[in-house]
Amino acid sequence: MDNSANVATTTTPKKKTKLCEICNVQRPVLKRPKTGQMICKECFYQVFEDEIHHTIVSNNLFKRGDRVAIGASGGKDSTVLAEVLTLLNKKYDYGLDLFLLSIDEGITGYRDDSLETVKRNQEQYQIPLKILSYKELYNWTMDEIVKEIGLKGNCTFCGVFRRQALDRGAVILKANKIVTGHNADDIAETVLMNLLRGDIPRLQRCVYIITGSEGALPRSKPFKYTYQKEIVMYAYFKKLDYFSTECIYAPNAYRGHARDFLKDLEAVRPSIIIDIIHSAENFHFREENKMPVQRNCTQCGYICSNDICMACDLLKNLNSGLAKVKLSINLKRKDKDQQVLDNSNNNNNNNNNNTNTFNNNLKSTLEIKTNN
Ligand code: SF4
Ligand SMILES: [Zn+2]
Ligand SMILES: [Zn+2]
Fold it and tell me: Which stretches of sequence are listed as region Disordered (predicted)?
């Protein structure tokens, strides 16, 4: 009796080894967050770098002979930016002179450690490094500022001072362009924050890939369409040397909420980050939201839209001891506003749901005003 038919039906078919969805040769080691594809390490590097190259070329971020200062904090974003720009500059012969520019805010136990990473990056990438400190520019460190004003509003000082410090550092390096490691997640978060705050001018500006062209030093974001998760993967697989501790003064207030919200949305719709950026790129704004006219600060000459720039204004308050007073007035105002809200809440029991939503929104707005 011939049993061959039975044998054929009972044999377990050999399991087919899955291969990288791009090259079909290597075994996949990761699932690409942006597309969900299972791919190998080499193909991941290739698509990651190719997309950044495409962003650079299609947006004309650089031209041959540019001196480009990379805002380097020692964190994953700027370290990957230094690695990728060094690589693309060689591979596609961009003809750029690259520099690392680090700002030392004077935060003990955070920036001093991360600067050690940047110093090693300087050796690894063979790019000249310039470190400029708040102390030498403003005669204040962030440690001293926090001692003076506490942990409310510290990031406002830090953000304004850093923006100007980067420009001043780039001038010292004779750079004509600045690049920063802001990634797609950062930009989508900022869009959400500005939308929720109703900050139309910032909403308009925050998706620009190049800003500051009206001044002497345009700054751009080559990672505008790059997912944070992919930057982390790239740094991890390439074993890059970066510093991953958060600033000890991070308030994590409003941006933290936007970040959490975005993470929840991303869990159900992975393309949400790029979708938000594309939506914001297509917003149309009314004429009256145009940028204010730029002029020079009467105290330091920095480009600004008022008589004196924000850094000089904040410094004036710090040096005269007014910063603390102004903040406490803001906080008192916040309490007063809260009281008004509480009273109005008591008088409006009929419409409890709406009132609570309104209060929460207004509370957040007040929080932003004091925190940022
Ligand atoms: S978290 Fe705030 S204080 Fe710390 S580095 Fe960032 S902006 Fe500066
Ligand atoms: Zn592959
Ligand atoms: Zn000024």
Answer: 336-372
Residue 47 pLDDT exceeds 80: yes
- The answer to the question of residue 123 being in a domain is yes
Distance 215 CA to ligand 3 centre (A): 14
Mean predicted confidence (pLDDT) in 167-192: 96
Q: What's the whole-model pTM score?
A: 0.81
Known binding residue 260? Answer is: no
Q: What is the distance between the alpha carbons of residues 273 and 56, in angstroms, rounded to a whole number?
A: 19
Among 32-36, 248-252, 318-322, name the most confident range: 32-36
Q: How far is the CA of 326 from the centre of ligand 3 (A)?
A: 19
At residue 103, the 3 state secondary structure works out as: strand
Q: Is 156 in the pocket of ligand 1 (CB under 6 A)?
A: no
The pLDDT of residue 12 is 62
Going from the C-alpha of 115 to that of each of 111, 141, 191, the distances in angstroms are 6, 15, 30
Check pLDDT > 80 for residue 148: yes
Specify the higher pLDDT residue, 151 or 351.
151
Question: Are 134 and 192 members of one domain?
Answer: yes
Look up residue 230 and give its amino acid.
Answer: E
- Residue 251, pLDDT score: 72
Residue nearest to atom 8 of ligand 1 (CA): 158
Atom of ligand 1 minimally distant from the CA of 248: 4
Domain carrying residue 315: 293-332
> Per the structure, how many domains does the chain have?
2
Average pLDDT over residues 38-51: 98
* 3-class secondary-structure state, position 123: helix
- 309 and 270, same domain (yes or no): no
Question: Is 87 contained in some domain?
Answer: yes
The verdict on 64 and 180 lying in the same domain is yes
Average pLDDT over residues 338-352: 39
Which region among 53-67, 170-184, 335-349 has the lowest average model confidence (pLDDT)?
Answer: 335-349
Question: Annotation-wise, does 75 bind a ligand?
Answer: no
Regarding whether 202 and 70 lie in a shared domain, the answer is yes
What does the alpha-carbon distance between residue 310 and residue 315 come to, in Å, rounded to a whole number? 8
Residue 311 lies in a domain: yes
- Do both 203 and 258 map to the same domain? yes
Query: In this structure, are 158 and 304 located in the same domain?
Result: no
Same domain for 240 and 299, yes or no, is: no
Return the SS3 of 44: helix
Q: At 259, list the tokens.
A: 């970040």
21 Cβ neighbours under 8 A, 6+ residues apart: 28, 37, 38, 39
Residue to probe by mutation, ligand 1, list 249, 255, 370, 371, most atoms within 8 Å of CB: 249
Instruction: Tell me how far the alpha carbon of residue 23 lies from the centroid of ligand 2, in angstroms.
Output: 4
